[in-house]
Structure prediction request, 568 residues.
Amino acid sequence: MHRWTLTTALLALAFVAAPLLADHHKPISLFDGKTLKGWDGKKQFWTVEDGAITGTTTKENPTKGNTFIIYRGKDGKAEFGDFELTMKYRIGKTGNSGIQYRSFETKPGSYVIGGYQADIDSGPTYSGINYGEKFRGILARRGQRTTIQENGKPKVDAQFADGAKLNDKVKKEDWNDYKIVARGYNFKHYINGTLMSEVTDADTDVRRAKGLIALQLHAGPPMKVQFKDIQVKLLGKSADAGEITGAQVRADIAPELASLAASAKPQAAASGGAKKIVLVAGHRSHGFGSHDHKAGAYLLAKQLEESGLGFKCVVHYPGWPTDASIFDGADAVVIYSDGGGRHPAIRRPSNAKTLDALVEKGVGVGCIHYAVEVPKGSAGRRMLNWTGGFFETHWSVNPHWTIKNPKLAKDHPITRGVKPFEIRDEWYYHMRFREQSQGVTPILSALPPKESLTRKDGPHSGNPEVRKAVLERMEPQHLMWAFDRTKADGKGRGFGFTGSHFHWNWANDNHRTLVLNGIAWIAGVEVPSTGVPSKTPSVDDMLANHDDAPSPDKIDKAAIAKKMQAVQ
Prediction:
């Protein structure tokens, strides 16, 4: 589970494992001392010995990478925000371990965890530090009080104690008391009653308001680590009601809220009560006929305004506008552009913050084709909050193939008036979606052919996981999806559409109507039963507004007409 934007930073604390806890003033035991009930880890490594959760590796039974046992709770979804977590631990002569909190699974079922870690070490250096497992590295060494800056790097505010001398407080190969206090975005680690490190996380793009509790078994030489007397006590004034509202965090980040409010000017209604759509068209890219962002954006804008549904469209080209006032009164932002590190919404931090502020207000966001791809990490987490899914390198793929027998979502407004269709495109698939696809509805799905995975593994071409999904499990892949943020503790809607590499495919009525319906839906417009009305574009319509077209005397209109007829 990830927390990707300020929206979820404020709202996530409203449901911190409430079903699990009865009296929130008293510590709640997370381990019964006899079984692993409520915990989930690889059985070959985790057992109960000496009344303790015990992780063991041997020469015969090593772990190839760090592995974790995760507290799932009664409903399998236990997560915690503000708390005091206490336990006893004992580690052998060799090895390294840690206690994860406000953490996340990197991939379901992998038992690989990222997030804040209270470190445990058999050696003299690391016990008590705050380590960001798959999460920015060391955040505070022993004896340090740090602030994590917006760039993710720690700034040492004070060396409040000598780290080497603090090691004297740790009992070697014996039981130690560990206490973690997480309050707002301040984290303190204590061993045997002594403060070992303190972190204040001001990295608003990455810091986490809630998450999993887990215990680590480290890769490397054979080792053994044990944990017992594991208890958690929720903090906050709202503990009596069985939840933490986030008021404490809201006060902590009030300046950031004010900054967001300032960056998103008041939403004035578009003229005549129309729904305002801002289409951000990316720079020149693949040449005439492919990735025609400008031509495609103007075509969609024209179709929307001529639909009779009351749209006012503004196209900005090329890339992200320098004047954010273009978004004033916007009901939806649609991005049709190149992606990855060139994605216009994340090329500059200010761009992403502008879109964050709009999403905070409930503005819809739609991304078309390459614009569904951003780098994983903070940008990926943002995209999951904006649209519910994204293309992740070394996980998703981008082959050219023809969809056949596609499945359209039943009873969803975006599929109204749309019939199954066959069309060749660069259909990206195997997207990275929100955990458990919370709020995400597949709109267009199909099973890719084997030929789409004949390329060697690479950041866009293939990987073992996508091959298992398609070639072994034969799972249909989602080529368009809708995201209802209200089902994920947010406001507004989003969508992703992986097709439209080829400009001429807009001539296919079903292909085009899906995207027009998607734009209407994220803008809060009731989609007609027959879909957003639009006319099949003419050759001249399709040749308008290109940024990379040959001179008119070199354009073969008859050949263009054949391309359009071929996809209809």
